[in-house]
Amino acid sequence: MVAEKGSSEIDVWSSLSSMSADVIARAAFGTSYEEGKRLFKLQDQHVIITFQVLRSVTNYIPGWRYIPTKMNRKMIKVEREIREIVKNLIGKRKESLKKGKYEYKDDLLGIMLESNEKEIEEHGSGMTMDDIIEECKLFHLAGEDTTAALLTWTMLLLSQYQDWQTKAREEVFNHFGKDKSPDFESINHLKIVAMIINETLRFYPPVTSLSRMIHQNTKLDKLPLLKGKEFSLPTILVHRDPDLWGSDANEFNPGRFAQGVSNAAKVPGSFFPFGGGPRVCIGQNFALVEAKLVLAKILQRFSFQLSPSYVHAPRCLVSLEPQFGTPLILHKI
Length: 333
Ligand code: HEM
Hints:
Layout: E1 7-11, H1 12-29, H2 33-55, H3 70-98, H4 108-123, H5 129-160, H6 162-176, H7 191-203, E2 210-213, E3 218-220, E4 223-225, E5 230-233, H8 235-238, H9 242-245, H10 284-301, E6 302-306, E7 314-316, E8 320-322, E9 327-332
Helix pairs in contact: 1-2, 1-5, 2-3, 5-6, 5-7, 5-10, 6-7
The chain binds protoporphyrin IX containing FE.
Protoporphyrin IX containing FE is lined by residues 138-139, 142-143, 146-147, 150, 206-207, 210, 273-277, 279-283, 286-287.
GO molecular function, one term: iron ion binding
Cofactor: heme
Binding site for heme: 281
């Protein structure tokens, strides 16, 4: 995309979205990667239709979703195709097992099927086909746009704060030079890159709020929280609160993470981009390794700056994303 010795304007949001879709398709479906990609494309369509339906006034008419409107029929068609693909994938793996070829691989689907077989053998019941399909869908939904958003906001901020871009590149060069590929072990030695990623997660958290159900009456300071009600914890507001982060809460300053996550805020527990408790994000380590690897590789090859055509308009769909893309000018180094 960028000439050997040149510069190009690229919408990094769209490129990084395709990249993280590829990563999650490979991790979830390994050898069946191509079918995985098709599945995830369909799921993207499904999300778009769902948001259209949720935003439509007809959403408030009881029973409307059962009426065969154009939109509802499209939704059913996409859902059916998604189920067919996953069923086929599972069928093929089971078939190979029957033929004695134990072909369950180290991908998410393989691990899930293998542990499910054991569960059924030992306890007589396990996950149904529907459960497995839903788990595959959830991983894609939870893991694709979130990681793409993290990487996109990081690149945007490093375009705006060139001093941090230079520091990060120096660190990457010190560890890997210009050509050595960063690997899983050494990626954790990148302290400045880690600080930048944490500050981006604070500044533009891909998941902007958490929902919780209240199980018993309680009080949060003077605020009564009533059993049976749902409440929302606005991550993005907590992450920018000057009482918790200091007067520079609305400034990008990775240095605040220099002494680790637990010392970054004035009040512990003010940083929770991956949620918390029993439902904490199970993909957080995966996402952080992916983000560090990708960022290190980009910093090794390119310097980048903001394009004059960039329009700042974050919006919240599945994750906090740049509504009009993120055009950056990349220079080969
Ligand atoms: C920067 C990237 C990511 C961010 C910011 C993020 C954030 C979150 C948050 C805030 C939650 C809700 C946690 C809670 O309610 O306490 C969550 C749940 C979840 N995430 Fe992530 N996530 C990311 C990447 C990923 C990836 C790559 C995967 C899969 C490989 C993944 C899989 C999941 C799953 C399956 C859940 C549901 C867990 C449950 O309900 O038990 N996430 N994530």
